[in-house]
Amino acid sequence: VQSLVVHSIIFLLSFLAVTFGLFSFDRMLLVLTTVVSLEAIYLAILIQMSLNQARASLAEVEHDIDEIQHDVDEIQEDVDEIQEDIEEEHLKPKIN
Question: What's the pTM?
Answer without folding.
Answer: 0.58
